[in-house]
């Protein structure tokens, strides 16, 4: 039996990386990563190499069933024969060392270093649906004078007058579940055509890997509906919410009785490295972090209990229980989760975080 392996990786575009993928047909069955060989690609076409030395290596690191390629229609269909997989890869140089764009390799080191703290992450990925041409949010009119009514009825709304694109969202959720990803929920967001899904709680590498694959599934399924999903932190200027990737975090210490003390200590440490975190929390985040629309100003750091206008929110139930987790509300929707998780890990569990220039 033949099987299709979709090799997925993160490119080197700046300031915001994008996903790439290509298909390799393998002899099945595929039972694990050991059945998936390394593969090469043209790094000069992904902003990761020059044309004179363009060969880069894809190292498979995480694999799930491919929900976009279903059961066979005929006995001769190789791409619909079952056993097809999605394969997330790290990008390596020809000498098999990590490429400079490979932020997963750096998180891998940090996750091992601080594993004794048993860190757990949950990421709330907000995004905006656009018409296929990408010119405007899905079902929004071409002229601003005819834009939807002001924010208010859309968050967790019901009905076609308030909710745009649910068919894609339902398909995406089903695909994440079929792939075995730890999707925890979905909801319509504050701006029409804006949505959110959540991944976690998982360890640092796992949550970032699964978020990238969930993003890939969202983009791929959007092709079937003529809809593009975008991670722009401020899709529409004016009195409209931006889009973030709120990152929830806990350690063994914060989850234990009396953990609220450790949560507040973590918040104090995060405040000392605020500007370093902002450097890796997503491009154009200044357009979103304005102090309005459920954000704190990008130049300001503060934390509070139940405060969605703070940089860090300590949920009210956590404060009442005296232990649990906190939510970093600063990361933008387009953040690289490998970098966000490493920044939080190194700041809370280590000596602090220094963003690379």
UniProtKB/TrEMBL annotation:
This is Glutamine synthetase. The lineage of its organism: Bacteria, Candidatus Harrisoniibacteriota. GO terms for biological process: glutamine biosynthetic process. Residues 103-357 form the GS catalytic domain. Pfam families: Gln-synt_C, Gln-synt_N. It comes from Candidatus Harrisonbacteria bacterium RIFCSPLOWO2_01_FULL_44_18. It catalyses: L-glutamate + NH4(+) + ATP = L-glutamine + ADP + phosphate + H(+). It comes from the Bacteria. Keywords: ATP-binding, Ligase, Nucleotide-binding. GO terms for cellular component: cytoplasm.
